[in-house]
Write a structure and sequence with these properties.
The protein is α+β, with helices and mostly antiparallel strands. 23% of the residues lie in helices and 36% in strands. The relative contact order is 0.16.
Length: 193
């Protein structure tokens, strides 16, 4: 990695302990710390299906030295501890099965929008992931039936962004290879017409 970690593992463990108190208490909800607040988002079936389809599509394209973490704590700063829906990290790190991972390991992170996570996924995480130097951030939105690709991280968020409607192919040119995701099979919330 050429990015230097700002959060040590001991700091990660300390930050993660804030969330670990809530694990298992609220089945069907995903819990994160966002801007110093505990945020619980209900998980719908199309949320999990989207993650599974994306994982499979990315895994088929990545070299064996890359792996995945999902819904595992990533301490960003004192006010934010996210659990990305999916993140690409070195396989050796993913295989350590940690309770928290430093953000400097992440090459690409993916969030799938929930009704309660719209601002967090589009605004808060855009800025926070970019500040931490995560090269690529993808937001899949089953309520708007599109994917927003973000790249070129800066201090105030990502400087590059494209919106790709579901039904088209998302192409992301990363440092670990050119990735293509066919969005035609991704589920869309039934409320979308």
């Amino acid at each position: 990695m050429d990015r230097e970690a700002d959060v040590t593992i001991s700091e990660s463990d300390r930050l993660h302990s804030q969330l670990s108190r809530f694990e298992g208490m609220f089945p069907g909800y995903r819990t994160e710390i966002v801007e110093g607040n505990i945020v619980m988002s209900p998980v719908k079936p199309h949320h999990a299906r989207t993650i599974r389809l994306l994982w499979n599509a990315l895994e088929a394209q990545l070299a064996a030295e890359w792996g995945f973490i999902s819904d595992v704590a990533v301490p960003i700063d004192g006010d934010n501890e996210f659990c990305p829906d999916l993140a690409v990290v070195p396989a050796t790190e993913a295989d350590r099965y940690l309770s928290a991972y430093p953000p400097d390991l992440i090459e690409l992170t993916v969030e799938v929008v929930s009704p309660s996570s719209v601002r967090n996924d589009y605004v808060v995480k855009d800025q926070a992931y970019a500040r931490r130097g995560i090269p690529h951030y993808l937001v899949f939105d089953p309520y708007r039936a599109h994917c927003v690709t973000l790249w070129n991280p800066g201090p105030d968020g990502y400087r590059g962004r494209d919106t790709v409607p579901y039904g088209e192919t998302v192409t992301v040119d990363t440092g670990i290879g050119k990735l293509r995701i066919d969005t035609s099979a991704l589920p869309v919330d039934p409320s979308v017409t």
